Structure formats: C-alpha cells, structure tokens
C-alpha cells in the first residue's frame, strides 16, 4: 500500500493549481475506495464547511440545498467533526438514532466514510470528509492512508505557490535533513523501531528520538509514516545498503 500511496503523494505535491490539487485528491480517494470528498481548512464557523469548502467534489446544488434545509444546525456528523481532534470511521448505521439524518445520507446511497479533523490554529477548524457508497468495510489501513493524504493536501493547499514540485520536491525535502537524519529515515522505511535503529547505527534511543522529532519538524509532517512517504523513492545520499543486516 505504501508504494502505491507514494505516487498519489507525488501527484499532490506536484499540483500547481487548486484545480490540479482537487483532481489529484479525487484520484487518490477513489483509489482508497471513496466516491466523494469535502475538504475545509481554517474555518471560523461550522457553517463555512458547507458554504465555502476549500476543495470538494460535492455538487453546488447539493451544498446549497443542505444549507437551505438548515442541516448545518442538526448534522450530527458535522457537529462531531467540529468537536473532535481525532480521525474516525463511521457507517451509515451509526446514525440510526438520528432518523432524519440517517434517511438524508441514505438518499445519496452513502454507506460510510472517514472524517479527519485538520485543526491548526485556535479559533479555526478544518476537516477532510470522505464518503463511500461501497458496503465493503473500512479498515485501519484505509484510515492511515486517508490521514497521510489529508495532511499532505493541507500542506499543499495552504502554500501552493513557491513550493518545488515532483522529484524536485523530494530533493528539497531531503535537503532539509542532515546526513544522520537521512540515514535514520532510511531505517524507518525498513520498518525499524527507534530502539533498533539506535543499535544498528551505534547510537542511543534518546538520540534517535530527538532526531525523529527533528525530521518531523523539518518535513512538517505528523508521523514517521508520513515522513517516509514524503521522501519515498529518493534514497538518501550515503545511506546504508538495503542488504545491511
């Protein structure tokens, strides 16, 4: 999954316009098994998620009808997204207790989805909402992939201009890291824990922990998995061979 996901991350980082970014997100979420998405960033009020989404495949007519019907005041999913700080999976049956909403989303043929809060600053909220029409159960692997995409989209959407793209973006990201940090990231890509990496390169666990925090900070990513995806396919100069024990 990681190697396939890396291509979509590459496409996201290569987008030069919001339209290109929207198309790249659409391709990525369909690969994950979703039919539509709505991404809202840096919103001051929950109504802005539907009034002025940052990127969406939802039809304007559906968004306007949603607002006319005052769903924003009684949408349990949107309310949970606005309150939560953690991503969550949901199934249409989860909303049985909210009968009106259950029938509303069922009318679109929706079976489930993933909601990923993207809150970055006090007083501002954001989220990526993915909708699925498939009865196939959503998995934690799907959630992990969606979270990686969400954070990459957020970074690209908020600073689209002036960023290097494609292979240049990979070289730029690698250039932010020291040689030691590149080596550590190489071993992370092999599935090694910080303790194992410390033993391999003759360092301490505490030092590796420090370098990992520096790597995440420099790459502006939320997790070690996202860091690997951000530079996947670009081997760090001087990194050890993959045949190294």
From TrEMBL:
It comes from Cereibacter changlensis. PROSITE patterns: HTH_LUXR_2. Keywords: DNA-binding, Transcription, Transcription regulation. InterPro entries: Sig_transdc_resp-reg_C-effctor, TF_LuxR_autoind-bd_dom, TF_LuxR_autoind-bd_dom_sf, Tscrpt_reg_LuxR_C, WH-like_DNA-bd_sf. PANTHER family: DNA-BINDING TRANSCRIPTIONAL ACTIVATOR DEVR_DOSR (PTHR44688:SF16). This is HTH luxR-type domain-containing protein. Residues 170-235 form the HTH luxR-type domain. One of its GO terms (molecular function) is DNA binding.
